[in-house]
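> @MW can you paste both from yesterday?
MW: sure, first one:
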Amino acid sequence: MNNSNHQLLLYQLELDQALVDCGMSYFFRLNDGRFFVIDGGYFTPGEEDRLLGWLKDLTPFGEKPVIAGWFFTHGHQDHVGNFIQFVRKHREKAEIQKIYYQFQPMDFSNVTGDWREKCNDLATVQEFYRTLEQDCPDIPVHILHTGERFSVGGLEMEVLYTAEDLYPTEASFNDYSAVIMVTVSGQKILFLGDLGQKGSQILLESKKDRLACDLVQVSHHGFNGATKELYEATGAKVLLWPSADFVIRENQNTAVNRYLLREMDIKEHLVSGTGTVRLELPYKIHTAYRYPKQFFHVTKRS
């Protein structure tokens, strides 16, 4: 890998919404040319090729992309599915140096929701672990813990919340999302995954003084996610929406989204469903490079 100094970049990727109306995929291009990936999206066929394509385009010709770290917020299909197919198809085409996550224990008895969804979620987590064991046993795994800090290629990370803070309290699977604050040259970016109301309450009670940030990823794709009070505590001016464009339109009048879209003092909304965006870091508002929208075949939820 070329060790020359690179502009540190953040990409919010547009995902193919033909099969699901959710999904989340981010990556940082680090100042040493490596990458740090967050989640990656659903099992949608071709998503693994698109992710590799982005990484290869940003890697010097003839060199293998190096993923310094791949972080997973939680084990839902639309967050870990693409990783599973990526390593099975492209394991030799990219180097993955470390995997970061903190999932809830395999006992799903305290997870609320329909039993069929719980069965699907359990099967996905089991497949994730099977993939680690069978397809990439040589990649170091870092199990995250609340309060931990670590650095990767110009990124300073603080783990604000994990499943450890919740388990075994009964809650939605989304509330087991790991929450990290990423700091770049003094600028803070908060990644919430799919955090819900109980996780929001715990964060506000235990880490309210650590939530202030410049950019925040909107929880659960603009569906029912984090609380208004949590977003208010961030004071963020830029919202990162890992959301289909039609999801925001159809959910714009929920209490939280009404606050985010019309009441909170937000200077910029960046929505993955309107096209991939590239942010030079530290980020100056309204300077994101917007790639053309790629997927036109989905206009609304059926």
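MW: second:
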Amino acid sequence: MKFYNWLIKYRLLIGIILIIGGGVFNYTSSFWPAFPLYFVGVILIAGHFFFGPLRLIQNYLESGDIEGAEKILNSIKTPGLLYKPIRSVYYTLKGNVAMMKQDFEGAEKMMKKGLDLGMPMKEAEGASLLQMGMLSMQKNDLKQAESYIRSALRKGLPDKENEAAAYLQMCSLMMNKREFRAAKDFFRKAKALKPTTSQIVDQIKQIEKYISRIPG
């Protein structure tokens, strides 16, 4: 795994060196001895531009190293050359990093680009729609927030934590609209998932204090 990550990090440089080496062999000998160097060099360079180094970003995101993640993303100078599903993931990750930095306008712009390109998995699309809904709530655009979150639930979410978060957001939106019966229904769905994320658990405890006292 470490070797593979190292190869991803340096494959452009390695590819260039191999092609130069192929040129030297071609000049001093003939084409065929140089062909393997040309072939592997072209594959490595094409991989750099078509697939990018996104695999390297996972460890940074898991450890909360936003600067490290952003550095990897900023190393991609030509995102338009990325394979379309990977380009979508690239813009989504850019949006995630912007959210971590509280740049909500930049996050929304990047995530919209990712969604417009189409996500490689329905669950990933659902997670992006949920984030868009949360961004809309930050901007107090509640109508748009509800539309995004409902779409996220229809598309499907990657795990019960995200699903519970979506139901809690819908609960909040319904309470704001004074649709208390719907709010209680969404709250019950969130609680039934038994989420373990501390932030979501705290939200459930806070809502539980007063939701039983509201009508509906």
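> thanks! The chain has eleven helices and no strands.
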